[in-house]
Amino acid sequence: xxxxxxxxxxxxxxxxxxxxxxxxxxxxxxxxxxxxxxxxxxxxxxxxxxxxxxxxxxxxxxxxxxxxxxxxxxxxxxxxxxxxxxxxxxxxxxxxxxxxxxxxxxxxxxxxxxxxxxxxxxxxxxxxxxxxxxxxxxxxxxxxxxxxxxxxxxxxxxxxxxxxxxxxxxxxxxxxxxxxxxxxxxxxxxxxxxxxxxxxxxxxxxxxxxxxxxxxxxxxxxxxxxxxxxxxxxxxxxxxxxxxxxxxxxxxxxxxxxxxxxxxxxxxxxxxxxxxxxxxxxxxxxxxxxxxxxxxxxxxxxxxxxxxxxxxxxxxxxxxxxxxxxxxxxxxxxxxxxxxxxxxxxxxxxxxxxxxxxxxxxxxxxxxxxxxxxxxxxxxxxxxxxxxxx
Length: 390
Prior knowledge:
14 helices; globular; Growth Hormone, Chain: A
């Protein structure tokens, strides 16, 4: 892979996640503080991304992979997405906002798989080259978070509480939509008919014959409940307790994520999957004390989980297995978590709008403790013999 293509792909990842980071973190504070949304309405807005995650495989597997060049389809989706992001800036009704952000998420989420497909199509050694390309996505998220958290505009104390992040996301999405048409050509993968079971990864259900993998799968869904609490309400909590530069400070989680990822291959061999996942859940119990713990929580559980899934699945069904675990976690798990977090938020908010934040955060802590106990009692897998290759 030559330098020009490497730079093209890295910049593609940078803007792809710059767009997501621009609106996702600030959406909660904007809805609750500015549009006066209820916890349930805020939870619904974050659940939109989970709904889109569950539908995205159909868009990519049944349409994009069979009929369109990936870079062109991604360009169209980002151009249409820019229109809906702009509409988000014009809406003051939280219920209507949900439908618009749902429409946007349905356009955006397939571009994650498409951007990966464009990158993999150009790589000669995916295990070594893809992490160096993908890390620019994390950098893009960090850059926009730092910008939104630290840039001050005249007459505006906190731009995260305004529609400005959505304007920034609109511009970035529009730019990426045009830029996508100049990316390396990535033709359709297959003209053969794809079944729904293949798209959803149902071929990987055979993995449930292994009790330990089944326990891991269930734990992965359940752990997304406390994860949703963090994503949906951490920004609002930090804003209400008076933290400055909330959006910028929350990017510390992504910085730690990038750093801890380096340690996973070594620890995977030294400690084994069970001990790493236990460390992840212990960190999850404590994560509501510090943003920096996000990296341990995410990397040690989800990245390790992807490696564990690939190891258990083998070559024949590894793609189906990864699709299934993504559908279950970021789709089903995050949807449940987003809905539950909104209900719990409203339950601990009094008539004056004051939230009993301690009680609110204890709920996801107790869920995590329950998942940890489930894992300790029933997960029995052993250490891997070799390090993961990617």
